Predict the 3D structure of the following.
Amino acid sequence: MAASTVLSATISILDKKAGSKNSGKSARKRPAQPPIKCPECDSLKTWKDGFRYTSLGPIQRYICRNCGYRFSDPDFQHAFNGSDMSQHVQNVLTKKLKRHAALPNPRQVCVALTRGTKNLAKVKVKSEDQAAGATKPDRATNVGKLIDFAWHLKREGASNDTITTYSSLLRKLVKLGADVLNPESVKTILARHEFNPNTKACIIAAYTSFANYCGLSWKPPKYKWQTKIPFIPEEKEIDALIAGCSKQIATILQTLKETGMRIGEACRLKWTDINIERTTIAVNEPEKNSNPRICKVSAKLISMLQALPKKNEKLFGKSSKQNKTWLFKLQRQRLARKLGNERLLRITFHTLRHWKGTMEYHKTKDPWHVKKILGHKSLRSTEIYINMDQAHFEESNDHFISKVAKTAEEAQQLIEVGFEYVCTTPENFMLFRKRK
């Protein structure tokens, strides 16, 4: 009796626990939700794929296991116009990065969301500039033809600077979408783009040589070369650059200032071209078909040259003139900021050649003397310094020191120290002046 009572009580307790456990599970069980249908393929095999957090609140995202289409919760209504958010999802064909095979991959971009996202639907593909009615040029064919043209110039004995300049200008045309084998396409590119007139003249000269090589019928358009007066700095500005630059760049600047040679000619100088006893530098490898010449320099420049390290036969090392130009630009920018003089940014290596020609003509008034110093083969190249002298010194007539000579001996002494004869007074006094 007692045993049966204990057994029945135990069974009732176990039944109550099981019932309470099952009742708790049923209480916590959520009602089943209807499956979400894919708006692309109408499949019910969809999974939840995180949330998209927007200014309107989080939006449930889904992915279809059948077609891989991702879409937003269709029950989410837009807060402003009540439109279905799934209508604002568009397929954008993109490519995955950092993969061996960049295969097209369908992705979705929410067009309605503009904050923190990029609307790829509005991205426009930039079309290449081509001639009207012309077919798309074959870039590989054009580049290969330019390489053949460069070798042709090399075989014909053209200088490296000419080959580099022509190749750079013709590659620019190809990059802009021109078909260099079609002269009309080149004319269209020149007409569409706002190049400097002098740049267009250089491009036409390069393409004319290329057309002659390829045997193309080419009538060059008429673009006139515009001659400009070069910038002539003050001597104190040049000296400020020389004092603030590094040892090698400062020596190069001093050499260009005293000799008027080009930077390419300076880079070709060798230690054997310097005569320390006579303080001269010989330019044996001139550029642009100029004449070789011997330049008289100062003892200051000779001492600066002797302080340079002698690592090879080249006076300024084996680095290219492009590298030296880049270093000079960096140091020039630093000095322009430090001294607060923006005019220093306009000074280049070639500016010193213009400065030397202008100063020499101002001192001597002899264009043949300037022609000999700069190595010109024609006086037409020297005429520019005559105009530069008039334009530069008419505004600075007050920067002179004047002297009076009463005898021929005094006049001779003034001329030897650099004074220039001006006129003779009625009292037979000779007036001289010298630039400060």
